Automatic annotation (TrEMBL):
Gene Ontology annotations of biological process type: protein deubiquitination; proteolysis
Bias (Low complexity) ranges: 497-506
SS bond list: C192-C795
Protein's name in the database: Ubiquitin carboxyl-terminal hydrolase
Family indicated by similarity: Belongs to the peptidase C19 family.
Pfam families in the cross-refs: UBA, UCH, zf-UBP, zf-UBP_var
Ranges of residues in domain UBA: 635-676, 702-742
Location of the active site: C332 (nucleophile), H797 (proton acceptor)
Domain UBP-type residues, every copy: 172-280
């Protein structure tokens, strides 16, 4: 018997055959971005089915004792043009379908590889040849062959997580279609000659399938489209379905559900059209469908070409810190953010410098460990990733993307996301996982001081809060090319009235100094409850920096809502400076002789018909009357609730929006709605914090014990965990976010493993430490920025530019090149680092 046979016989019991449901990681290393295409290939453990690059497989063998690995290497095939001799590549077909990776859709690069597979035995890395396999005893040969075949046939985890094909035209049946109410009002629609019944517009027309009203569609962000009359009609009547006239053919039509806020299918469309005299079988298409319009938007140039520098020949770069990241299906927002974080010393120190400690402490399944996967995502800092053929390849972050998006619909799908929201989400995850030791998110953390001065008493109130990003407003009314913009608007209105296509609008030029001034200017509060005068009055709020972080992130607030609440992106150019001095925005604190507002809480909001049983209510006590009766219902501004309902949002969501924004008006409530539409409990009834029982005494059946244990394991007390869960309807992810965003509110509660301390008076307790922040000079230099192309955060593309060794470099997913003309005026997120004098 050969030595190889002896080894295989000794480890035969550890070689497993994959079964349905087993997670097979055969495309990506658990500790890095290494893959079968990387230099050295990938080693898949034949027991745990975890994959390891050539740098880390030895470490796994030593730690676990596993000896048998399936070694997979892939070499890219050379591309030969067999069909086009001397004529170059054939022109790419124009996309005709809003899809990726399927016939008629947008192309994705499909590369062909030659694959080599063999079994390798550790520690000597002995290869099992086909001759070895043939000479093995039947029981050994069968087990090894079945394991190999099972591993090769199994879908890898990354393949399961990744949607290889995306079809934006797949629509769901509307919940209203089957039982749609149609009015017998005698309306019959002619086969042509339609116009809006309100404004006489003759294009972009939609017929309501309940009452037959023909009205114009929504106004688009650039001023084109309709005048929103079909939408307004739905808000007034609640009739949910409308069909786009001009798109009706025997094969179907564009049907939109205002209630479901999406394009839908109507299986009874022929019947619904026939009700208003429309014979679907005789109709012809006369207008572009919504799919065709969206394809056109995705092919538009201008901003895309400038930001991607596609008009120039860019020099490719490679080496440590210059490795691209593959797009896994709208993952460019993640790629851009992580590339910038790769360059920040705090993240490198926390993870890369502790590589041995992180790997040695990794659990048996490192794919589910946050520290391991962050380290994996940071590997491009030091790696110079090459394919087996010597080609420079981008790395794929399947495991990392799956882990950071787990349990959160907004980050666990292949839909486009807001890079700013992902950055904050990732910082939250770092905060949760760095309760002790070095916390790299401290590089961004700073304190904001808000000073509110009661104009009637001239007394002041100071509060501080933690923040990570500066959101810079864009005052469009202060554009330096205002005359050009006004002339363009006049031409657009003329074209609209004459039916001519609108010409391209100029880009607004906004000085950065104007944006900074808008950030720091005093804000007037018209409904401020003053404890000095014991009444509502007017106050002035001034916001300043109480500390300056090591790294400052500035978000340009390009995404907003029009007067009709249609989301739009501001097309602006801002002269963002390379250096920045914010010293003048340093908070000064209480001034000599300045009186503070008395620390008296405002009276609780309650409805007039509530029977007040005393401010102590049912759960208060003589020492602490802040927990007044949960039966005291808050007053909700009915007009704001009604306005939101008229826009088509669920009643309970509208009530929550008004409640959580403190009756501060439609703007704040609408922003809350737009920020929470993806919440799983968005339409659930409003449950007030404290409405079930007192803090610390919530019955076990009211709160999931596993959620309590999870939060307590992060270092918070059980009372704090209870309070967070009750405030967020027992949704764990939201509860954790809530507890981190209410650290100031929790300062009166001990942050410890054991909960509230049982003994000692309040005065004898030391208050828990506040959030740790760094401070220094307010002078900064720009080192990176992330740009967005497209009409909203939910579509388009992100790239980032990073300054490395005084050279700007563009990271466009896996393409890394020297930047010739970095478009610093078109960025969305800007990253500055402190200048040390």
């Amino acid at each position: 018997m050969t030595e190889v046979n002896e080894i295989l016989m000794s480890v035969l019991s550890t070689i497993r055959v994959p079964r349905p449901g087993d997670r097979v990681h055969k495309d990506e290393c658990a500790f890095s971005f290494a893959s079968p295409e990387s230099d050295g290939g990938l080693y898949v453990c034949m027991n745990s089915f975890l994959g390891f690059g050539s740098k880390y497989v030895e470490r796994h063998h030593v730690k676990t004792g596993q000896r048998a690995y399936l070694h997979i290497t892939r070499t890219r095939k050379t591309q030969e043009d067999d069909n086009n001799s001397g004529s170059g590549d054939p022109p790419k077909k124009k996309p005709t379908r809003l899809a990726i990776g399927i016939e008629g859709g947008f192309d994705v690069e499909q590369e062909q590889y030659e694959e080599e597979v063999k079994v390798v035995l550790f520690p000597d890395r002995q290869e099992v040849t086909s001759e070895d396999l043939a000479s093995m005893p039947d029981v050994v040969r069968e087990r090894v062959s079945l394991s190999m075949a099972g591993l090769l046939a199994a879908d890898s985890v990354s393949h399961t997580l990744q949607v290889q094909q995306w079809d934006g035209e797949v629509r769901q049946e509307s919940k209203h279609a089957a039982e749609l109410k149609q009015l017998d009002n005698g309306i019959k629609i002619p086969p042509c000659g339609w116009k809006c019944e309100v404004c006489d517009l003759q294009e972009n027309l939609w017929m309501n399938l309940t009452d037959g009203k023909v009205l114009c569609g929504r106004r688009y962000f650039d001023g084109s489209g309709g005048n929103n009359h079909a939408l307004l009609h739905y808000q007034q009547t609640g009739y949910p379905l409308a069909v786009k006239l001009g798109t009706i053919t025997p094969d179907g039509a564009d049907v939109y559900s205002y209630d479901e806020d999406d394009m839908v299918l109507d299986s009874k469309l022929p019947e619904h059209l026939s009700h208003f005299g429309i014979d679907m079988m005789t109709m012809e298409k006369t207008e572009r469908t919504m799919t065709e319009l969206e394809i056109a938007v995705n092919q538009r140039v201008g901003e895309w070409e400038v930001i991607q520098e596609s008009g120039t020949t860019l020099r490719p770069l490679w080496g440590p810190g210059l490795t691209g990241m593959k797009n896994l299906g709208n993952s460019c927002y993640l790629n851009s953010v992580m590339q910038v974080l790769f360059t920040i010393p705090d993240f490198q120190t926390k993870y890369v410098s502790n590589i041995d400690k992180v790997f040695n402490e990794a659990p048996s399944d490192p794919t589910q460990d946050f520290k391991t996967q962050v380290l994996s995502s940071l590997s491009p800092v030091n790696d110079d990733t090459e394919g087996a053929s010597g080609d420079k390849v981008g790395v794929a972050s399947h495991m990392f993307k799956a882990l950071v998006g787990r349990g959160l619909p907004e980050f666990s799908t292949n839909r486009q996301k807001d890079a700013q929201e992902f950055l904050l989400h990732f910082i939250n995850m770092v905060e949760r996982n760095c309760r002790s030791g070095l916390n790299p998110s401290e590089a961004f953390r700073f304190l904001v001081e808000e000073k509110i001065v009661c104009r009637q008493s001239q007394k002041a109130k100071y509060t501080q809060r933690v923040d990570y990003i500066v959101q810079l407003p864009v005052p469009m009314d202060q554009a330096t090319n205002m005359e050009e913009l006004q002339e363009a608007e006049r031409r657009r209105e003329e074209a609209e009235s004459s039916g001519a296509p609108p010409s391209a609008a100029p880009r607004a030029q906004i000085p950065f100094a104007v944006c900074l001034a808008a950030l720091s200017e005093p804000e007037t509060l018209t409904d401020f409850w003053s404890s000095a005068v014991q009444a509502k009055t007017t106050a002035t709020k001034i916001t300043r920096f109480a500390s300056f972080p090591d790294h400052l992130v500035i978000q340009i607030k390009k995404f907003t809502f029009g007067l009709d609440w249609v989301p739009k992106k501001l097309d602006v150019s801002i002269d963002v400076p390379d250096t920045l001095d914010l010293s003048s925005l340093r908070a000064m604190g209480q001034q000599p002789g300045e009186e503070l507002l008395p620390e008296v809480a405002p009276p609780p909001l309650m409805t007039p018909d509530v029977e007040v049983k005393g401010i102590l209510g049912f759960h208060g006590n003589e020492e602490d009357d802040s927990l007044y009766s949960p039966l005291l219902s808050p007053v909700l501004d009915d007009s704001t609730v009604s306005q939101l309902c008229e826009m088509g949002f669920p009643l309970e969501a509208c009530r929550k929006a008004v409640y959580y924004t403190g009756n501060t008006g439609i703007d704040a409530a609408m922003n809350w709605v737009m920020g929470h539409m993806e919440d799983p409990d968005f339409s659930a009834p409003l449950v007030l914090p404290g409405s079930s029982s007192a803090p610390g005494t919530t019955p076990t059946e009211s709160l999931p014990e596993e959620h309590l244990v999870t939060i307590v394991s992060m270092g918070f007390s059980r009372d704090q965990a209870t309070r967070a869960l009750r405030a967020t309807n027992n949704v764990l992810e939201r509860a954790v976010d809530w507890i981190f965003s209410h650290l100031d509110d929790l300062e009166s509660m001990d942050v410890s493993e054991g909960g509230r301390s049982g003994g000692g008076s309040e005065a004898s307790r030391e208050p828990p430490p506040g959030p740790r922040v760094r401070d220094g000079t307010g002078k900064y230099e720009l080192f990176a920025f992330i740009s967005h192309m497209g009409t909203s955060t939910m579509c388009g593309h992100y790239v980032c530019h990073i300054k490395k060794d005084q050279q700007w470099v563009i990271f466009n997913d896996q393409k890394v090149c020297a930047s010739e003309k970095p478009p610093k005026d078109l960025g969305y997120l800007y990253f500055y680092r402190r200048v040390v004098e």
